[in-house]
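Usage

Read records sequentially. Each one opens with the input sequence:
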Amino acid sequence: MSYKILLIVSFLSVFMGCKEDPPIPELKFYEGKGTLAIGQTGLYYSKNDSEPIKIKLIAVISDSRCPEGAYCIWEGGVSAEFLVNGINYKILAASMGNQSVNYKNKKIFISGANPYPRVNAKIDPRKYTVEFTVEVI
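and closes with the structure output:
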């Protein structure tokens, strides 16, 4: 009898200890810029559109920006993967010019990313936030 109780208590303690991360709330932004965390969705509202554009940041693919405390010949850039209304895109933001995505009558591009790299410091990929700018074209 006691081994059954021990088994039940062990089973419950394992599954009660497992918690999912809370969902990341959607961000609403209007006419301009919005900053998203990895896995977060932003809803871009424009006064000229009846439906928002849904932008979801999937991952920062690479970060070749010149770290603070280093001397670099090239400034580098950040590339990110994201979804725009369910369509997958990858774009690069670099000192030589930003790539952009044209979606309907909007141009979407990366206008910033944090944290900024530092010499001898590794960035946890889950800690990135990326600022997107949406412009009417």
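Summary fields computed downstream for this record:
- Residues 67 and 116 are 7 Å apart (CA to CA).
- The chain is about 10% helix and 45% strand.
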